[in-house]
């Protein structure tokens, strides 16, 4: 939360009665009521009951969120206490200044300070020095606490994201996850730094000044205190609307981020098809809705300002009247009244901060709910305790079925076939027949909803997930490379950077026909290839992904259109490398170009999630079924 603008002299008493927010945040507000709920007429109707139930639930959820934030603060409790003590020193110093002015006016000008006037500047300078040191110390230690907590949150979020199942990535876009891990944490920063500093330091300051005010003139102080319940009621009415608007604004922000992500990721399609106007219209609608929500939040958050200004003007009028009456009865002095007014003026800044605290707090709570939602995301099941050093590679699909969530038709149904160790099995079929879904079940990106998959005679969920995936090398049609060196991409996941086997990297690159390409790079294998390998051509990227699979040397190999991005010459080179790689390994190959899998030991043809036929290339052609039809179509197209 950024620093607040200084208050003009004409506005100094406008927020005098804003102490209520401090009381509310320290003791916890009562559940607020909906600003648009029906008015009560002789009883509570059904809508009122539903509204009150919803508000109570929301209030409890908010308190649970804040309580959970506190669990992250607890390990930093010692540092947190030091920061609070420093804030206490800052708050106490506020009450000293009016006392000095009081004594100076009553005694300094009357002769009591004759020969001791140096006490006043010395005391003021000393108070300012102590206050400055304490203020710096409190800010430093609280920032240290909050940054430690934010680091912990970010690490937990990223770790949980890495451990989440594949369905999690189907439900959440990349922009949503980036927004949560990187940007939403900054909203929580407002709770841990700005809001927390304001709440603790300014509440203590208000308390110290109120003690001084009550000690100086308790009658005038009671006038200020009368306004607290009124301001509390106003804030509770605003609180509900702010909370709802913040949640809706957050959801809208994620949607807008997704629109930007789509436009940036698909810029070629946008430009080629002239979609600039369409994308601009789509984003303009989102921007307008975001503006509308922001304005409603600004209106709701600003309601307390005119109300407190009006109440403060009433309070000032009453205070001045009472002060004049007391002066006529010799119940106050010029110094006492001046010190009282000065303390009231010193109240303005912390009260304004506390009055404005609600809106950033609501934003922070909303962001914290999103963060904790990600931290609480279920992780992939890690079942199995059977040891698995290196599998033989015998795979069996036993009545396997799979359905994506609540999808109507099953993606796979009653899949039965056996792949012996070292066998090369090709999966073919029309688009949407379930080929990619089937191979995704082997490394347990998803678990079958029916049946089971056996590896070396054991269900794959009997092994630990990490052990199972060490047995599988996967080369997909969607190549994913990392913004790192060639060597680091080839050895990714097998060896850390400091332990990469460079001779093994060279062999993998040679097998993928990349040796000459890498030699032509500025730093050879130590060349950074950029974001997703942007410094390489499409064919080179595909071959680098194949080199990564070669380096892993796993007993099971899955190729999902692994040669789709290669030209004819590169395809012949890589196909030869793949045939060498597949020797002695269990291999599942997905290919739309049937010419690349004619030499497979067996071909399994899928249609609508079921096995339509299986056999060798020659057998399937002789059967004159679905495979033969697909083969004739491709052969005719190639003529």
From TrEMBL:
<feature type="transmembrane region" description="Helical">
    <location>
        <begin position="307"/>
        <end position="326"/>
    </location>
</feature>
<feature type="transmembrane region" description="Helical">
    <location>
        <begin position="117"/>
        <end position="142"/>
    </location>
</feature>
<dbReference type="InterPro" id="IPR027417">
    <property type="entry name" value="P-loop_NTPase"/>
</dbReference>
<dbReference type="GO" id="GO:0005524">
    <property type="term" value="F:ATP binding"/>
</dbReference>
<dbReference type="Pfam" id="PF00664">
    <property type="entry name" value="ABC_membrane"/>
</dbReference>
<feature type="transmembrane region" description="Helical">
    <location>
        <begin position="77"/>
        <end position="97"/>
    </location>
</feature>
<dbReference type="InterPro" id="IPR011527">
    <property type="entry name" value="ABC1_TM_dom"/>
</dbReference>
<feature type="domain" description="ABC transporter">
    <location>
        <begin position="395"/>
        <end position="633"/>
    </location>
</feature>
<keyword id="KW-0813">Transport</keyword>
<dbReference type="InterPro" id="IPR011917">
    <property type="entry name" value="ABC_transpr_lipidA"/>
</dbReference>
<dbReference type="InterPro" id="IPR039421">
    <property type="entry name" value="Type_1_exporter"/>
</dbReference>
<dbReference type="InterPro" id="IPR003593">
    <property type="entry name" value="AAA+_ATPase"/>
</dbReference>
<keyword id="KW-1003">Cell membrane</keyword>
<protein>
    <submittedName>
        <fullName>Lipid A export ATP-binding/permease protein MsbA</fullName>
    </submittedName>
</protein>
<keyword id="KW-0472">Membrane</keyword>
<keyword id="KW-0812">Transmembrane</keyword>
<feature type="compositionally biased region" description="Basic and acidic residues">
    <location>
        <begin position="33"/>
        <end position="42"/>
    </location>
</feature>
<feature type="domain" description="ABC transmembrane type-1">
    <location>
        <begin position="81"/>
        <end position="363"/>
    </location>
</feature>
<feature type="transmembrane region" description="Helical">
    <location>
        <begin position="220"/>
        <end position="238"/>
    </location>
</feature>
<keyword id="KW-0547">Nucleotide-binding</keyword>
<keyword id="KW-1133">Transmembrane helix</keyword>
<dbReference type="InterPro" id="IPR017871">
    <property type="entry name" value="ABC_transporter-like_CS"/>
</dbReference>
<dbReference type="Pfam" id="PF00005">
    <property type="entry name" value="ABC_tran"/>
</dbReference>
<dbReference type="InterPro" id="IPR003439">
    <property type="entry name" value="ABC_transporter-like_ATP-bd"/>
</dbReference>
<keyword id="KW-1278">Translocase</keyword>
<keyword id="KW-0067">ATP-binding</keyword>
<feature type="transmembrane region" description="Helical">
    <location>
        <begin position="332"/>
        <end position="351"/>
    </location>
</feature>
<keyword id="KW-0997">Cell inner membrane</keyword>
<feature type="region of interest" description="Disordered">
    <location>
        <begin position="27"/>
        <end position="54"/>
    </location>
</feature>
<keyword id="KW-0445">Lipid transport</keyword>
<dbReference type="InterPro" id="IPR036640">
    <property type="entry name" value="ABC1_TM_sf"/>
</dbReference>
């Amino acid at each position: 939360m950024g620093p607040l603008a200084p208050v003009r002299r004409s506005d100094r008493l406008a927020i005098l009665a804003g102490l209520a927010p401090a009381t509310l945040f320290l003791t916890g507000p009562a559940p607020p009521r909906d600003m648009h709920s029906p008015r009560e007429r002789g009883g509570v109707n059904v809508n009122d009951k539903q509204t009150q139930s919803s508000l109570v639930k929301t209030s409890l959820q908010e308190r649970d969120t804040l309580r959970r934030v506190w669990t992250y603060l607890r390990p930093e409790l010692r540092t947190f206490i030091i920061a609070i003590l420093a804030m206490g020193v800052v708050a106490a110093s506020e009450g000293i200044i009016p006392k000095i002015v009081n004594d100076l006016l009553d005694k300094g000008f009357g002769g009591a300070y004759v020969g001791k006037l140096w006490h006043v500047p010395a005391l003021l300078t000393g108070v300012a020095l102590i206050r400055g040191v304490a203020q710096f110390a409190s800010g430093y230690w609280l920032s240290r606490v909050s940054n430690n907590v934010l680091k912990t949150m970010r690490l937990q979020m990223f770790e949980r994201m890495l451990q989440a199942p594949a369905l999690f990535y189907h439900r959440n876009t990349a922009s949503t996850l980036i927004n949560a891990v990187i940007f939403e944490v900054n909203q929580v920063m407002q709770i841990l730094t700005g809001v927390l500093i304001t709440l603790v330091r300014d509440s203590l300051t208000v308390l110290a000044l109120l003690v001084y005010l009550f000690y100086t003139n308790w009658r005038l102080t009671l006038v200020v205190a009368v306004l607290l319940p009124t301001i509390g009621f106003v804030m509770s009415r605003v609180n509900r609307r702010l909370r709802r608007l913040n949640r809706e604004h957050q959801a809208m922000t994620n949607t807008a981020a997704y629109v930007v992500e789509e436009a940036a990721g698909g810029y070629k399609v946008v430009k080629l098809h002239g979609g600039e106007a369409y994308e601009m219209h789509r984003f303009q609608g989102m921007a307008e809705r975001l503006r509308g929500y922001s304005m409603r939040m600004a209106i709701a958050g600003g309601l307390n300002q005119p109300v407190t200004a009006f109440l403060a003007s009433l309070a000032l009028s009453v205070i001045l009247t009472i002060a004049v009456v007391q002066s006529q009865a010799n119940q106050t002095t010029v110094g006492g009244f001046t010190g009282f007014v000065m303390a009231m003026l010193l109240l303005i800044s912390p009260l304004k901060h506390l009055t404005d605290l609600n809106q950033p707090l609501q934003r922070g709570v909303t962001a914290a709910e999103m963060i904790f939602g990600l931290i609480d995301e279920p992780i992939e099941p890690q079942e199995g305790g059977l040891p698995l050093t290196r599998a033989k590679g015998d795979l069996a699909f036993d009545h396997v079925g799979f359905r994506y969530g609540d999808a109507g038709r099953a993606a796979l149904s009653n899949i039965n076939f056996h792949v012996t160790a070292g066998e090369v099995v090709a999966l073919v079929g029309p688009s949407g027949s379930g080929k990619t879904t089937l191979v995704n079940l082997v490394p347990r990106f998803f678990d079958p909803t029916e049946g089971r998959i056996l590896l070396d005679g054991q269900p794959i969920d009997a092994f630990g997930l990490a052990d199972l995936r060490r047995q599988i090398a996967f080369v997909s049609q969607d190549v994913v490379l990392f913004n790192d060196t060639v060597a680091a991409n080839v050895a990714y996941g097998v060896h850390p950077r400091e332990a990469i086997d460079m001779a093994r990297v060279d062999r993998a690159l040679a097998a993928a026909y990349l040796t000459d390409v890498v030699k032509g790079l500025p730093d050879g294998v130590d060349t950074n290839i950029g974001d997703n390998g942007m410094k390489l051509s499409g064919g080179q990227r595909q071959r680098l992904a194949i080199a990564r699979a070669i380096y892993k040397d796993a007993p099971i190999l899955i190729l999902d259109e692994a040669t789709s991005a290669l030209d004819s010459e590169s395809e012949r080179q890589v196909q030869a490398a793949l045939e060498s790689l597949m020797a002695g390994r269990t291999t599942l190959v997905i290919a739309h170009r049937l010419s690349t899998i004619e030499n497979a030991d067996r071909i399994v043809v899928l249609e609508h999630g079921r096995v339509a036929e299986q056999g060798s290339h020659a057998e399937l052609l002789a059967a004159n079924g679905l495979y033969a039809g697909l083969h004739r179509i491709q052969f005719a197209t190639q003529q």
